[in-house]
Amino acid sequence: MTILRKERFDLPEGIIYLDGNSLGALPKGAIERANDVMAAEWGTSLIRAWNSADWMALPAKVGDRIGRLIGAPAGSVMTGDTLSIKVYQALQAALQMRPKRRVILTDSGNFPSDMYMAQGLIRTLDRDYELRVVEPEAVHAAITEEVAAVMLTHADYRTGRLHDMPSITAAAHAHDAVMIWDLAHSAGALAVDLSALGAEFAVGCTYKYLNGGPGAPAFIYVRPDLISEIAPALAGWMGHDAPFAMEPGYRPAMSIERMRVGTPAIVQLAILDAALDVWEDVDMHALRDASLVLSGLFIDEVERRCPSLELASPREGSRRGSQVSFAFEHGYAAMQALIDHGVIGDFRAPDIMRFGFTPLYLDEADVVQAAETLGAVINQDLWRHAKYQTRSLVT
Amino acid sequence: MTILRKERFDLPEGIIYLDGNSLGALPKGAIERANDVMAAEWGTSLIRAWNSADWMALPAKVGDRIGRLIGAPAGSVMTGDTLSIKVYQALQAALQMRPKRRVILTDSGNFPSDMYMAQGLIRTLDRDYELRVVEPEAVHAAITEEVAAVMLTHADYRTGRLHDMPSITAAAHAHDAVMIWDLAHSAGALAVDLSALGAEFAVGCTYKYLNGGPGAPAFIYVRPDLISEIAPALAGWMGHDAPFAMEPGYRPAMSIERMRVGTPAIVQLAILDAALDVWEDVDMHALRDASLVLSGLFIDEVERRCPSLELASPREGSRRGSQVSFAFEHGYAAMQALIDHGVIGDFRAPDIMRFGFTPLYLDEADVVQAAETLGAVINQDLWRHAKYQTRSLVT
Questions:
Q1: What is the DSSP letter of A81?
Q2: Average pLDDT for residues A93-102, to the nearest whole number?
């Protein structure tokens, strides 16, 4: 069965979209589902929809659907909040599980918000915790008995460089550290098998490869044997064992429900649920194969045309996520010019032109055409006409 | 100008809705706005919509619109996340502002999730903090120099009993305690003037009286002179001074933006923004007057018909929010029967039948008809036919 299913998306005419790693495309059916939730459920059933449409069960139901794509068993993934909040939940639980240890280990390739959340947690705890940041290549050697939690993003958001999940997880466990994986650029992009991995926690967002829409809910995975050990810091009523008993004291649910916090964003969850319909029969290994064909082809086609661009992603497919990045001094201007010519990628400071590959709605002809357009922008210096030549970072 | 504007809502035929204090009705225009965000912005502009549709500015823009309704100046209200998360942010900041004090004072009328979040924060801090819970009438006397923060919900979710915000805030300040008000049942229901009040923090949700839809984003108000003092625990990248500089260290924005955490729920924010259009020309004092007329009329009409129901809300209008509650032994069954007869209220354990009054889409004829129906349910023992006679609290 082919992976390509462009007919399941509403893609704008005349655009080649290579930024599904930032915000996935609009799946067909998502608007209808939003309308249905708003008109038939909210508008007509009003408060009764919490029962009649089973809104209360939606976060776990959607979590299970994501679980299938990342190798997590039913009942181990909960959706809600934002990825930053889910990072905080995982980190706080990890520190609690290793009360005598004081180091959170991460790498300089981690997404800034993950580091910021760790910094915020440490500042709040006001004890001698340390966020230790090493280079990606130095992670293995930095895992010691001091480390409470190893927190890494699987695929580097700038370069797509992959960490080797099994070996790092094994190293963390060999030193009795808790392993937290951020799957922001992996869920829906790579074949991840959390059950086989044995990591304690994974978190991720759903508005990239999973196409859940802008601000779609995040998710958190907790290894099933650990769920009942967690005493949530973010002890919201939706994670209570009996939310509507309105007890004065918090008693966490005896399931993944305890990772819920407040009232779920029902409309966004329903849109995400509709977006997941597209994934029903997708084999993640076949998707990964298709992704590597597309990204490899893009590297070849761009390098052949643009010797002034320097590949910033791993050349070896097995070490590369579902994106390709090129460093170029005038990258910001070049990306603007490229977008003006109908090929949408994005830019990450200081000089990274970033291109994401989403095999559900991108084919080889798109990739070749994108490379041709990029070649014209670079070789004909079209970027010199871009409105902004550099990005103002103070906004 | 009249407050009533039923024509601005899509209300189901044959229903009298007295539960807008739990989930507000669907405003006209909200579905169109959601469609526009999804089709034109997400679907067509894709990632570019963050700039072209100014999604990045939406949380603050919507915050300012809520600010007008609660007497908060521009730049002091931020939307996002859930109310529970906003409670956590306010509490953590308050404890940080009073580092030598160890008591969070609240009352038994507070909403459970507010207490749970305090318990979760205290457990995480793992020091000698105490959540001190007193009866609502005992709050004044319990404000001492030990108290770091007084955290109260203005209107009791079960009875609608109001706290006197000015006198409690003044008492808190007389003892140098930080004041946090939860406006869940006040925003869009009462005339609140945060600027005059001088409280340090206020939080609230937007899916009740503000009609933002199920799971609509919450809000937090920070007194403007304090914003730059807060070192957020939930230090997400959206609250960073330069989110896209991707700096390794967290530097909070020098504005209310620092209360942001992760990527905002754009679709739900846009729906809320559309819902706030209805409020553009609403005078909050006139709304409060209309609310008291409706709730007073309901009390009269119900008491005249149903001597077996005991008023659980304050009889005096100035002490009552925008809801009326009656205690009735068979309240759960009676509420089911009432809903079956077209009048929607809700039930709160152990025996509270709760009715909310939303003058934007409810008039005196509705109130009289609702009381007549309730009279029939009670006096003809219709509740004995309800499917469930008591609510199972272990779900």
A1: S
A2: 97
The ranges assigned to domains in chain A are: 6-26+283-385, 54-277
The answer to whether A174 and A191 are in contact (CB under 8 A) is no
Q: What is the CATH number of domain B6-26+283-385?
A: 3.90.1150.10
Closest CA to B78 of B232, B244, B203: B203
Q: In this complex, do A112 and B48 lie within 8 Å of one another by their Cβ atoms? A: no
Amino acid at B48: R
Question: Helices (DSSP H) in B246-363: which residue ranges?
Answer: 266-277, 284-305, 331-340
Candidate from B120, B268, B344 with C-beta closest to A232: B120
Confidence band of B395 (pLDDT split at 50, 70, 90): very low
Mean residue pLDDT of chain A comes to 96
Q: Calculate the average pLDDT of chain B.
A: 96
Contacts A117 to B, Cβ<8 Å: 234-236
The residue from B19, B64, B107, B182 that is catalytic is: B182
pLDDT tens digits for range B105-126: 999 999 999 999 999 999 999 8
- Judged by DSSP in three states, B313 sits in coil
Across-strand partners of B180? B151, B201
Q: Which CATH class is domain B54-277?
A: alpha beta
Residues of B in contact with A15 (CB under 8 A): 46
Task: Please report, as a single letter, which amino acid is at residue A324.
Answer: V
**A113, A213, A264: residue with CB nearest B262:** A113
CA distances from A223 to A154, A172, A185, B290 (A): 17, 15, 20, 53
What digits encode the pLDDT tens for the residues A288-321?
Answer: 999 999 999 999 999 999 999 999 999 999 999 9
Strand partners, B355: B324
- Mean pLDDT of all residues in A19-28: 97
Arithmetic mean of pLDDT, A137-164: 97
